[in-house]
Amino acid sequence: MWFKREQKNRRMSRGHVLDVKVRSDQARATRMKLAIGAFAVCFGTLFGLYLFWRAGEWALNRFVYENPDFAVQNIDMQSSGTISEDQLRRWSGVKPGQNLIALDLAAVKRNLEMASAIDSASVERILPHTLRIRVTERAAVAQVDVARGGKDGFSISVFHLDGNGFVMQPLDPAQSIIPLDQMSDSLPIVTGLNVFQLQPGHRLATPEILAALKMIAKFPGSPMAGLTDLQRVDVSSSRVFVVTTVQGGEITFGLDHLDEQLARWREIYDLGQRMNKTIASVDLAVANNVPVRWTEKISAPSPAPKTLDTQHSWRKNV
Predict the structure, then answer these.
(1) Which helix (H) or strand (E) covers residue 72, if one does?
(2) Number of DSSP helices (H) and strands (E) in the chain, helices first
(3) Which residues contact 143 (CB under 8 A, 6 or more apart)?
(4) Burial (CB count <10 Å: 0-12, 13-18, 19+), residue 106
(5) Which of 34, 56, 152, 306 could pair with 186 as two cysteines, CB 3.0-4.6 Å apart?
């Protein structure tokens, strides 16, 4: 009897185990089906998005970026200075026929502003065929002559400075709209600065240089305009700079109150005229009891006054 009961219990136990195993296999199969389904949905979604992105990219290229209807046909260019239109086009890197929408405006602006003669540039699309460019050029107010030695002897390298102290490479006559016979060499020469800082596009920011350039820019509108010309400006001293005129006079300026110093120079000049004398040297940095050294006035025709064009007048090139 006990043997039969034990056999029955064993059969019931094996059946229970088999039932649990079947349910476990079914659950595992169900989870696998769900995982495969989820993977298929995700893969299908991603693949669909990829196809949609590729189709959109193709459509943009076909109908926008490669569309000849948006080709650059006109470049509306205005410049404030004398750089020729052809040179500005070369610096911009823009060629007729390029797609206007695909054009990288930031790169065009950067290309133009890399030229030391250009202060700023703006670039704008005017659909469907026009690119508008506005260029503000730096106006040279002074120059620096640097002697360089070589196998063939010494040569002179010339750099220009604008009123803010930026160093510029002088324009080649072929880059300018001004004919060669009309180009002026009347810029005063700045001496006494660190020639190793003369890198095109670099700004010279010492107080003496900035004050000297500011005075040079003010000179054409000062009381001394037309009475003499600035020939050389020495910025090697501290807190002052010394101007040499074409008549040989040496005028020492302080760094501040330049308008008052220019007016004081005119008063001393007029005093010399009444005394039939000319200024040999004067220190305008001294506010009271200004030290002046005179020389006898030589009766000779004064040279024609030279002017500096420091104003921007816009010209248009299309």
Answers:
(1) none
(2) 5, 13
(3) 158, 159, 160, 161, 170, 187, 188, 189, 190
(4) exposed
(5) 306
Return d(Cα 220, Cα 227) in angstroms, integer.
10
Predicted structure pTM score: 0.73
Q: DSSP letter at 199?
A: -
Residue 302: left (phi > 0), alpha (psi -120 to 50), or beta?
A: beta
Cβ atoms of 167 and 204 within 8 Å: the answer is yes
CA 55/CA 46 separation, integer angstroms: 14
* Cβ pair 235, 205 in contact under 8 A: no
Q: What angle do CA 41, 44, 50 make, to 5 degrees?
A: 140
Give the number of residues written for the chain: 318
Q: Reading across the β-sheet that carries 130-137, which strands appear in turn?
A: 118-126, 130-137, 74-79, 315-317
